[in-house]
Predict the structure.
Amino acid sequence: MAVTGDVIESEPTSPQIADTSSAESVRWVGPRRALAAIARRPALVAFFLALLGGLAIAVLTPPMAGGDERDHFTRAYQISQGDLLTTRHDGVYGAYLPRTYPSEVQALTVDSFLDRDRTAFLHHLGDPAPHGPPTFVAVGNAASYGPGAYAAYAVAIAVGRLFGLSALALLYLARVAGVVVYASLLALAVRRLPVHRWVLVACGLIPAALNQASTVSADGVTMVLSFLLVAEAIRLVVDPQRPSRRLLIETGAAAGFLALAKPPYVALVLLLLWPAWRHRGTVGRALMGIFVGALALAALWGAYQVTHSIPQNNPNAWLGGIHQSHGYAFRNLAVGRQTRYVLTHPNAFIATIARTFAHQGSTFPKQLFGQLALYQLPGWFVVASVALTAAACAAPDEPPQRAIPWAFRLQLLAVSLGVILAIFAIAYTNWNAYLAPRIDALPPRYFLPLIPPLLLAVLPAGTPWARLTRAPAYRVALAVGLAVVLAFAVAGLQSYHYGHPPL
């Protein structure tokens, strides 16, 4: 008997032995080829795990239990009617929706959180569609968010309204659309990224990230658009070939939708300046057009957003006592003076950020990697998620790719850190007390879109343990680990929502 590669070749002495030996060869080759295929196709791993895990979270999360989901669903419903702009009424911003919409959404909220029967909300699936003359409905914090973050939800809701679906059915339809779009764009981003693809797979499958993509939220689409824009910018820098028209169209679409999503992630379009200089000529002009157009769109919507945001100086609008739940947030605000303070005292602002991390301790990483709306994953799940992300950093590219130039790595790092500082500044100036010693009520999930560019900026082209991690079994084990963490996260989410008493 001789062994060549992955196939065991026999020297049969009879037809019967030959048949048996052939069957053994198939059994040996099949699993190995399947595992090798998984190792070579991280985009497919990202797509299927995001799709399956996301759909499970979408189904098991009760209505309106996502982060600010009631406001985001209302905003998406408004956009599905073709109404992009909100109106002011009695000191708040909102939209005119069918008369029965508020009562139906309120009934879903009550059944989800207060009814002892944890599945009581399901009887609303067969309710009539929201109907009646238009009435004003407050949209809350989502009133000023751009339509780019809600495009997928709005299309799904518009289709559901054509069939007369209930508010609950529309919510689930929007969630499913969000999961499909997230999984598809995540897979596309992994395919476009020329280096360290498994890093993007692991970051896209962080339970907290997938949770945002599986409920109606402005964060899920913003996150995956950020992933895609970073991946395509790196490809434009690393790939020696002339960019295809399709790649330029994808980059322009990602930048345009991101400009109309949540700020300040549109700043990632700064990464296009390097490839625009590198591909001087027609391609460079196209990239500069994308860059200028995205910033112009973001500026126009930002100007609208500033004048159509609800005041944050209202602690009574938040669940729980302000001193217990939010500390310095949503009280004693002075946005103008606070903004001037940040600009004129940058060192003091950096010290405030440091005190924020010191005050939160382990809360920040726990929520960053394991917060599923109301449910917090146990600590060891969070450690496992962090460990898998670190393990993904060691997975080499197959076949090996050209390294990211160090000059572009510095730009990637600078832009990412700049966006992080901008997020802290927005939180500090817009909803924290004037001269507060720390920044409160800042959800760590806002930093999820920036984990991949930060890692890609600092990871070396090769690793000293590449011989070990190059084996297909390493990447297969990584994919299995990501699947296991998602499975336990979904199981814990189900137990939390349906095995515990309601709030």
Summary: The beta strands are 2-4, 7-9, 87-89, 92-98, 134-138, 371-372, 375-376. Residues 395 and 469 are 6 Å apart (CA to CA). Residues 1-29, 318-324 have pLDDT under 50 and may be disordered.
